[in-house]
Amino acid sequence: MEPHELMSASEAARLLGCSPQKVRQHIRAGVWKFGVCIPKQKGGKKDSFIIYRRQLMKTLEALDKRFFILYICSSSNLK
């Protein structure tokens, strides 16, 4: 895996509009599937996270499409 294909929780948070901690929490809980949590090893300080840039971009594209469809549907009901 190339380094440019991965991103930090901070980078993902900027794109998602939330905190890096929220990104880590959602990945750890399995809510967001664009990354994985690697539990800390015995004696380790904290969990590690691998966030896949391409998968995050696909998730954002899907969210944009859903938002657009909801907007169009709600706008047509207002007329």
Query: What structural class should be given to the helix and strand makeup?
Result: alpha+beta
Compressed to H and E, one letter per element, the order equals EHHEEH
Shape: elongated
Q: Would you report the number of β strands?
A: 3
Low-confidence stretches: none
Tally of individual helices: 3
Main sheet properties: 3 strands, antiparallel
Please state the CA-atom Rg, rounded to the nearest Å.
16 Å
Strand order of the largest sheet: 1-3-2
Overview of this protein structure:
The protein has 79 residues and is an alpha+beta fold. Helices cover 56% and strands 14% of the residues. It has 3 helices and 3 strands. Strands 1-3-2 form a 3-stranded antiparallel β-sheet. Helix 1 crosses helix 2. The longest helix is centred in the C-terminal third of the chain and has 26 residues, at 53-78. The chain is elongated. 11% of the residues are buried.
Q: What's the short story on this structure?
A:
The chain has 79 residues and is of the alpha+beta class. It has helices at residues 9-16, 20-29, 53-78; strands at residues 6-7, 35-38, 48-52.
Relevant terms:
alpha+beta, 3 strands, 79 residues, single chain
Topology (SSEs and partners):
Elements: E1 6-7, H1 9-16, H2 20-29, E2 35-38, E3 48-52, H3 53-78
Antiparallel strand pairs: 1-3, 2-3
Helix pairs in contact: 1-2
